[in-house]
Specification:
It holds the Pfam family YjbR. This protein is α+β, with helices and mostly antiparallel strands. It has one domain: Aspartate Aminotransferase, domain 1 (Alpha-Beta Complex). It has four helices and six strands, in the order αββββαββαα. It has a six-stranded antiparallel beta sheet, covered by helices on one side. Helix 1 packs across helix 3.
Length: about 120
């Protein structure tokens, strides 16, 4: 299981690296591999199949309704600005969009303003 989580996270890490999100580092959050911006987690592994991404509550509700095969939550995440992503179901383009959005949620405003529109 641990090896599966590492290989799943490697995909996420490589995508984030290819985007070039400023001030992004690899670390851990709640004992699992995570991507951080200025020390704050914006995406982390929940398990080998599931990624937790930060997400504005309004956007979270809309995304889960539009595509529940990709985005969902458990009771633990209800009311929190984070949602779960099924890594086996999401394509790289959509995952890239989610990583950028999650990064913007946690990046300091000045830093976020330096990264594109």
């Amino acid at each position: 299981m641990a090896g599966d989580m590492v290989s799943s996270f490697e995909r996420v890490r490589r995508l984030a690296e290819s985007i070039g999100l400023p001030e992004t580092t690899v670390g851990t959050s709640y004992g699992t591999p995570a991507l951080l911006v200025k020390g704050k987690s914006f995406a982390r592994m929940k398990n080998a199949e599931t990624l937790v991404v930060m997400c504005a509550l309004e956007e979270k509700e809309m995304l889960m309704e539009l595509d529940p095969s990709l985005f969902f939550e458990t009771d633990h995440y209800k009311g929190w600005p984070a949602m779960l992503v099924r890594l086996s179901a999401i394509d790289n383009e959509t995952l890239t969009q989610r990583l950028i959005a999650a990064w913007r949620e946690k990046a300091p405003k000045r830093l976020a303003a330096q990264f594109g529109p």
